[in-house]
Amino acid sequence: MRIRAAVLRHPGRPVTVEEVELDPPKAGEVLVRVVAAGVCHSDVRYADGELGPGHWPGVLGHEGAGVVEEVGEGVTHVAPGDPVAFCFVPACRSCRYCLAGKPNLCSVVAEHGAQGMLMDGTSRLRLPDGTTLRHGLRTACFAEYTVVAAGGAVPLPRELPLWQAALLGCGVVTGLGAVRNVARVQPGESVAVLGCGGVGLQVIAGARLAGADPIIAVDRVPEKLSLAREHGATHVVDAAGEEAPMDAVQRITGGGVDFAFEVIGRPETIRLAWDVIRPGGSAIVVGLAPDGVEASVPAIEFLSDKSLRGTYYGSGDPATEIPELAGLALAGELDLTRVVTHVDGLDGVEAALDRLRRGEGARTVLLVDADLAGHPGAAHRGS
Ligand code: PAD
Ligand code: ZN
Q1: Which one of the ligands is nearest to 226 CA?
Q2: What pLDDT does residue 114 have?
Q3: For residue range 256-313, what is the model confidence (pLDDT) as tens digits?
Q4: What is the pLDDT of residues 310-322, one digit of tens each?
Q5: Is 70 exceeded by the pLDDT of residue 125?
Q6: What is the tally of helices (H) and strands (E) in the chain?
Q7: In Å, what is the CA distance from 27 to each residue of 74, 75, 98?
Q8: Are 86 and 148 in contact (CB under 8 A)?
Q9: What mean pLDDT comes out for the span 344-364?
Q10: Rounded CA gap, 237 and 243, in Å?
Q11: Which ligand lies nearest the alpha carbon of 167?
Q12: How does residue 380 score in pLDDT terms, banded at 50, 70 and 90?
């Protein structure tokens, strides 16, 4: 079928919304009508070529929600008409990592998905001239329709508006997973969150749900610090202000935090995360640094039981966590609305990437199908 999709032809050139060919789903795959998609800083890394070679040409977008249009042979967990969130790691459930309870590290996904291919190593997307297109982060949801592996379509409760559900499959599962699955924050433990964009705000929300205190939010954009407070930060620190963030965290905690989450992806803020933790504390790097960038810490400080670790996609099982997080949103415990500072149509992709490059706003949600998205302002602002 011919669809409109946001194509990255080459990094450094604007992403263009154009007509592409999408083949039908094969066995074990699902065709989804995309309804809404969130624009994440990982899309910027991708579009700017910072994930290294082998990611273009392709269709961008890895965070979103839609409605199942058609299922391939053997798919039974969803049916046409079902609302779904995308999961960009459709775990195979049989490789060594999946069997060890680490489906986020699935080796089949790592092998084919890193190339932008589906689980059988092939693509369903091509340009009208026949050029194969990659499925950006296995999802390619900046498009009217997409074909994903069965595990890439996670069923959602029908009551949750899809413009909110769109955020679950990356920012929310990543941010809350870092708190719940990696740090396992306990009530009264202290947390610093460096970077309060679309993902960092979810780390803050997760820390609040876990009962962390204090929750210190650090960003260099005042607007982000206001959003951080709305999401549960007890203290905010302007990284561009007079007091160095390191000093501010020391002043607030009198010795450093139990957990620092780096949600930016820069060597200097990874180092800051290390510097603001107390002896025995953990610095958790959520941010994605460009390919080839190194980060360093003073090695003698390993002597004080400090640890530095990474996390990918919440380090849990997104297929079970996404419905649970949708339930938290429906129960009013998790607010998915306030992180959305902009809504636009599919043609707004490049403008949304530019806002992220400039540090302006938090999440943009692209209302690909404004009627189905359920956004209150869609009639005025939608696609
Ligand atoms: P974003 O651009 O919305 O947020 C980044 C925030 O960092 C912004 O609010 C900036 O103002 C702030 N910032 C930038 N530089 C500094 C600085 N020097 N000091 C203080 N604040 C600063 O991005 P996002 O929230 O969409 O994504 C954040 C990172 O997380 C990004 O690197 C993305 O690629 C990564 C990510 N990782 C995973 C994972 O699985 N680990 C998943 C999703 C996103
Ligand atoms: Zn993302």
Answers
A1: 1
A2: 84
A3: 999 999 999 999 999 999 999 999 999 999 999 999 999 999 999 999 999 999 999 9
A4: 999 999 999 999 9
A5: yes
A6: 13, 18
A7: 6, 7, 21
A8: yes
A9: 97
A10: 8
A11: 2
A12: very low
Burial state string for 201-232 with b = 16 or more CB within 10 A and e = fewer than 16: bbbbbbbbbbebebbbbbbbbeebbebbbebb
Q: Are 86 and 141 in contact (CB under 8 A)?
A: yes
How many angstroms separate the CA atoms of 193 and 261, rounded? 5
Hey, what are 190's tokens? 């202290």
CATH number 2.40.180.10 is the correct assignment for the domain at 2-167+339-380: no
Give the Å distance between the CA of 307 and the centre of ligand 1. Answer: 21
Say if CB 77 and CB 28 are below 8 A apart: no
pTM (predicted TM-score) = 0.97
Contact status, residue 168 vs residue 328, Cβ threshold 8 Å: no
Quickly list H helices, 48-178: 96-99, 107-108, 162-165, 173-177
Topology match between the domains 2-167+339-380 and 175-312: no
- Calpha distance 66→161 (Å, rounded): 10
Residues with CB under 6 Å of ligand 1 are 40-42, 45, 170, 174, 194-200, 218-221, 224, 239, 263-266, 269, 286-288, 311-313, 356, 359, 362
Over the stretch 211-229, which tens digit does the pLDDT of each residue have? 999 999 999 999 999 999 9
> Which two tokens mark 49?
């070529």
Contact indicator for 352, 342 with CB cutoff of 8 Å: yes
Domain 175-312 - what CATH class?
Answer: alpha beta
Sequence spans of domains, the chain: 2-167+339-380, 175-312
Distance 201 CA to ligand 1 centre (A): 10
Of ligand 1's atoms, which has the minimum distance to the CA of residue 288? 32
